[in-house]
Amino acid sequence: MTRLVLALMWVVHFLPLQLLGGLGQTLGMLLYAFGWERRQVVHINLRLCFPALDRGARTALARRHFRALGRSFLERGLLWWAARDRIERLVRVEGDEHWLAVAGRPVIFLAPHFVGFEMGGVRIQLEQAVVSIYSRQKHAQFDAALLRGRMRFAKARLYSRQDGVRPIVRALRAGLPLYYLPDMDFGARDAIFAPFFGVPVATVSALARMAAIAGAAVVPCVTRQLPRGEGYIVRFYPAWEQFPGADLGADVRRMNAFIEERVREMPEQYYWVHKRFKTRPEGETSPYEREA
């Protein structure tokens, strides 16, 4: 099955972007229709984060999310097999002066989990080798394709989460920017419960800790999916001042608040299929278990 999916992605990557995007949106609606478990996760997440929306509005938002997700999946084939100049046209860059302003010191790109995060990561590698943290995929063939896609254009260093922060700090000090996605639930270890849309979430505190150890500047980096046929924009924001601070909890809350602001700008594009609220404070039950 994995081979068939990869073959399909390779075939359709030759299509014009407008047509490829349409197929991706159709794929997303099929995922919405038949992916019951992930559809439930999305609806639970949206209910927790947008309680003021009625059921109909949340359903409409969930459908838009799956269309964006389907698009990003098929369009990922362009990252894996398309020519460099097509990727440059696919993903435009805004605000690169913000990270160039601090390029003389270690830099961490704070890249939240929006559907276009792979697009942004590969686009940056057209200009600059980076280091990133890698989660092994369940299917070996898809895992291999993903690794090849992430390392096509520059010598990236990829470390697993099990490697810890030491090799990442060494790479930062050696001048490689870190493309870092910290907004997933990896359990309570090394996490702080901080609000996200008013709900406490187990938030990895490594961003502030690595920035402190490496003396790194934190430059937010957000990739937005544009309307069908128009590609993506990866946008850099000014480096955060006075980060990290003296209070690790305040640093974590600052990060979550920034991500929440960006989510409100394009709510259909956040990675809602992830069980972001799975780990709960002591005494609380996971919302996904209650509705399983």
Question: Can you lay out the helices and strands and say which pair or pack?
Answer:
Layout: H1 2-12, H2 17-34, H3 36-49, H4 55-81, H5 84-90, E1 91-94, H6 96-100, E2 107-110, H7 117-125, E3 131-134, H8 140-150, E4 157-160, H9 166-173, E5 178-180, E6 191-196, E7 199-204, H10 206-214, E8 217-225, E9 232-236, H11 248-265, H12 287-290
Parallel strand pairs: 1-9, 2-5, 2-8, 3-4, 3-5
Antiparallel strand pairs: 6-7, 8-9
Description:
- The protein is of the alpha/beta class.
- It has one domain (2-282).
- Helices cover 48% and strands 15% of the residues.
- The protein has a seven-stranded mixed beta sheet, with helices on both faces. The protein has a two-stranded antiparallel ribbon with strand order 6-7.
- α1 packs across α4 (55-81) and α2 crosses α4 (55-81).
Order of helices and strands: HHHHHEHEHEHEHEEEHEEHH
> What's the number of domains?
1
Q: Estimate the mean pLDDT confidence.
A: 92
Q: Helical element count? A: 12
Query: What fraction of the residues are assigned to beta strands by DSSP?
Result: 15-25%
Helix content: 40-55%
Overall form: globular
Distance between the termini: 27 Å
Structural class assignment: alpha/beta
Structure summary, number of beta strands: 9
**Main sheet overview:** 7 strands, mixed
In terms of per-residue confidence, which ranges show pLDDT below 50 for 5 or more consecutive residues?
A: none
Radius of gyration: 19 Å
**Strand order, largest beta sheet:** 1-9-8-2-5-3-4
